[in-house]
Amino acid sequence: MVIMILDDDPMSRKMLGFLLEGEGFEVVMAESIRAARSILAHTTPILILLDVGLPDGDGFSFCQWLTKEEPQVPVVMLTSYSAHTDKLNGFKYGADDYIVKPYDHSELVARVKAVLRRTSRAQSYLVQDNLRVGDLELSINELKLKKKGFKDIELTPTEMKILSCFMVNVGMVLDRTTIADNALGIDYAGSSNVVDVYVRRLRKKLETDPNNPNYIETVVGSGYRMAKPC
Question: In this prediction, what percent of the chain has a pLDDT beyond 70?
Fold first, then answer.
């Protein structure tokens, strides 16, 4: 579960990284909009902490771009811009929360977690009929996966839920606890391999070579991720 910190101040990035890693999050850091876009090309974070003053643009404009290009990723603006008009602009351009520096560490963590709770997409398959990622189309009601150039693939209800969880979080690393909680509706015990078993089953149905998967990738030490389409 990756959070991106976009801030041009090295000390701010280091301190925020230490704080969030202590809460169990994985952190990626960017010092500029260009660096952030490079990261977003191959990683979809669960949230972005965004400063306003950046060396190659302003955070307001980048937030507006994010709401169009990465609408599933919530943005928390974290800045010293404290004027009322700045806060209004932050929300106008799509921020999910606006926190002014200096801030209380415990409050920041609480507000980040609150945004994640409000914007969680893990259960979005419940209100959709079809999901599409690259050459894959999942028909929720029919329990079928369509893959370009292949016959329709039949899925069990549980396989559908797990694949849905991956497809609505494409590019995002999901740990086994998240998959079990959101897709299976069970508490995950660290010694259980139930998630791995279902991932193997999906790979056998989905991948041309299950031992060298192109769709559902293993992220060592973290979990699994559905690769972004090329």
Answer: 90
Confidence band for 6, pLDDT divided at 50, 70 and 90: very high
Assessment of whether the complete model's pTM goes beyond 0.85 = no
134: its two tokens: 């690259």
Which tokens sit at 156?
Answer: 């069990």
Distance CA 47, CA 66 (A): 11
Listing DSSP states for 126-167 in one string gives GG-SEEEETTEEEETTTTEEEETTSPPEE--HHHHHHHHHHH
The residues near 93 (Cβ < 8 Å, ≥ 6 apart) are 60, 61, 63, 64, 67
Paired tokens of 44? 């979809």
Q: Are 218 and 226 in contact (CB under 8 A)?
A: no
CA Rg value for the chain? 19
Check if the beta carbon of residue 161 is closer than 8 Å to that of residue 180: no
Which residues sit opposite 11 in a β-bridge? Answer: none
Q: Could you state, in order of their start, the residue ranges of all structural domains in the chain?
A: 2-119, 124-226
Structural fold of domain 124-226: Arc Repressor Mutant, subunit A (1.10.10)
Residue at 144: amino acid letter: K
- Pick the closest to residue 62 from 94, 88, 31 (CA basis): 94
User: Is domain 2-119 in CATH 3.40.50.2300, yes or no?
Assistant: yes
